[in-house]
Amino acid sequence: LKEENASLRSKINKLQIFSETQADKVRKLEKKLEENKIKEEQETQDLEAMVQHVEQNLQLMTKRAVKAESSAAKLRQENALLQVQLNNYKTENEALRSGQSASLAVVKQNADLALQNLLRVITSSRSSIKQLVSGAESLQLVAELLKSIDRISEVSEDGQ
């Protein structure tokens, strides 16, 4: 009976040690699970902050693109008006050559002025068009970044 008691005590001690070992493992796993939850929450917050920042940048770039488009349209109109003015000056110049109007020097000065205005508008138009193209490229980059964020979110949800 003593041997059986000793054997049972030995088994109980082993089971207690095993139980304590398992309890330690459970505590460690619970702690690790809590750390992973905290880490995941932080990553989620960081991702949300990044998405919000990207959305703000997208809105800003959209405003810039709209402004550039508006500016380009105005410059096209001004360019068209200057073309008409240049044609009028050319016509006046031809009329002066045939002796119907004011001096040739005034017409030449008007034509030069129109040409300078036209060149200024063309230069300004080129700059606005470059800004518009740059804005469109930036919008494309942001769209690709947003697609990547969607993929990251899908991978995170699948990993849970």
Automatic annotation (TrEMBL):
- As recorded in UniProt, coiled-coil segments are 23-92
Q: Which domain of life is it from?
A: Eukaryota
User: What Gene Ontology terms for biological process does this UniProt record contain?
Assistant: positive regulation of cilium assembly; positive regulation of protein localization to cilium; regulation of cytokinesis
Q: Which UniProt keywords apply?
A: Coiled coil
Annotated Gene Ontology cellular components are: centrosome; ciliary basal body; early endosome; midbody; recycling endosome
Xref: PANTHER family: ENDOSOME-ASSOCIATED TRAFFICKING REGULATOR 1, ENDOSOME-ASSOCIATED-TRAFFICKING REGULATOR 1
Q: Which family does it belong to?
A: Belongs to the ENTR1 family.
Q: What is this protein called?
A: Endosome-associated-trafficking regulator 1
